[in-house]
């Protein structure tokens, strides 16, 4: 089974994704973590090589993760790539959203180069909102509810989707 989590930075894709994977008995892959493991911290990649280089590394990890399968957390901007958008067609995709009030405590210090503050986060999210909505088959807000509750909802949706499908989910 392949299940993809998308959404803006700080929506909880990694935190929720690990729980969903455990509930479904699937491996968990986080494309940002894979990039960091192979190339170092994301802010350093941005500083040394720029965003286009980071996006090419991200695309490589998206392809590898989709080939491996399991529950996959994409970095917030991974869906900007048209090839990635095409790859998601027919796959179960969950959009995790979060409200600005909940993002404040999640942004961290310098960890997210494109969203160092709430104003930039809002601008990035608004610019991508329609794309996220178009790609998602299921949407869950992560602002104020326990991660375990959210993970259970997503796992239930994924199981029902698998049960409703005559073909197994890739």
Task: Please provide a brief summary of the model.
With 170 residues, the chain is of the alpha/beta class. It is built from eight helices and five strands; from the N terminus they run E-H-E-H-H-H-E-H-E-H-H-E-H.
Structure, explained:
This protein is of the alpha/beta class and 170 residues long. The chain has a single domain, classed as P-loop containing nucleotide triphosphate hydrolases (Rossmann fold, 3-Layer(aba) Sandwich). Helices cover 55% and strands 12% of the residues. It has eight helices and five strands. A five-stranded parallel beta sheet has the order 2-3-1-4-5, with helices on both faces. Helix 3 crosses helix 4 (51-68). The chain is globular and about 45 Å long. The model is unreliable at 166-170 (pLDDT under 50).
Q: Which key terms come to mind for this protein?
A:
5-stranded parallel sheet; globular; disordered C terminus; Rossmann fold
């Amino acid at each position: 089974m392949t299940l993809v989590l998308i959404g803006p930075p700080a929506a909880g894709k990694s935190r929720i994704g690990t729980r969903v994977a455990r509930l479904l008995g699937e491996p968990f892959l986080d494309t940002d973590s894979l990039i960091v493991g192979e190339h170092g911290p994301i802010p350093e990649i941005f500083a040394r090589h720029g965003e286009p280089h980071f996006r090419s590394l991200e695309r490589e990890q998206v392809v590898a993760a989709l080939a491996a399968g399991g529950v996959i957390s994409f970095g917030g901007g991974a869906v900007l790539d048209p090839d990635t958008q095409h790859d998601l067609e027919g796959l179960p995709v969950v959009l995790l959203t979060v409200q600005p009030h909940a993002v404040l405590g999640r942004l961290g210090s310098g960890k997210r180069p494109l969203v160092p503050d709430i104003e930039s986060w809002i601008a990035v999210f608004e610019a991508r909102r329609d794309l996220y909505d178009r790609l998602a088959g299921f949407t869950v807000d992560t602002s104020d509810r326990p991660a375990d509750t959210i993970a259970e909802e997503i796992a239930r949706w994924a199981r029902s989707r698998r049960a409703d499908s005559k073909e197994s989910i890739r």
